[in-house]
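User: Please predict the structure of the protein below. I'd like the answer in structure-token form so I can feed it into my own downstream comparison script.

Assistant: Understood. Taking the following sequence of 238 residues as input:
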Amino acid sequence: MSSARQSDFLSGLPVTPVSTSHPLSPADRTRLIHSYITSSPKDGGLGVSQDSPDWDLVESIFSLQDKQFNEVWVRAWKPQNIMAIQLEKIRNQFGDSIAFYFAFLGSYTHFLAFPAIAGVIAYYFLPPYSPIYSILISIWSISFVEWWRVHERILSLRFGTRGSFRVEKRRAQYKPGMRWWVRELRIIASIPVILLFAGVLFAMLTGIFIFEAFVTQLYEGPGKQFIVRATYASYIWT
């Protein structure tokens, strides 16, 4: 475990000294133990990994859970306090990544109040495909993304994870001496798959918009009023 803390220190991450006054949190203890078990022997670990050919009987590695904490935490999720997220408690128990996730979830939920209100107003007072509604949602989305970038930096400084991407871990599949052009060929080989799924996504979205335009503008059959309302409502809320 000392090798993992040494790697954090050399990468510029804060390392809390282990003592009786500053004990390790459950998340830090789990992370260090997992790092020690799964790290390669060259990095000071045991090298136990499901990706290693020497451990082909290992399917996955999962840390043990604190059932008592999980039960108390789940019971605390009530409608009246579902937005009261205690980031420090989540971070100490589950780690920084889970704390970041809940921080984003809470912020995004708060920000969704604006498009929800704007959607109701647009549904009753604006025509279909209103440019005013589109402009407002575009401004809202850009504002939220920029706000979250700033808030994310603040949280990374608060959690002491700023620059954690510099901490690298040698993979179990790593083979020394691989030529650079082999790695580049593997990256290039993934481009057709990415383009294929991008084309499928583009075709699906285009089909949805064409069907919506047909139902709202060209369809004159029975039940048009209900179909148009349902289609327009789904368009507003999505």
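That's the full token string. The chain has two domains: 2-176, 181-238.
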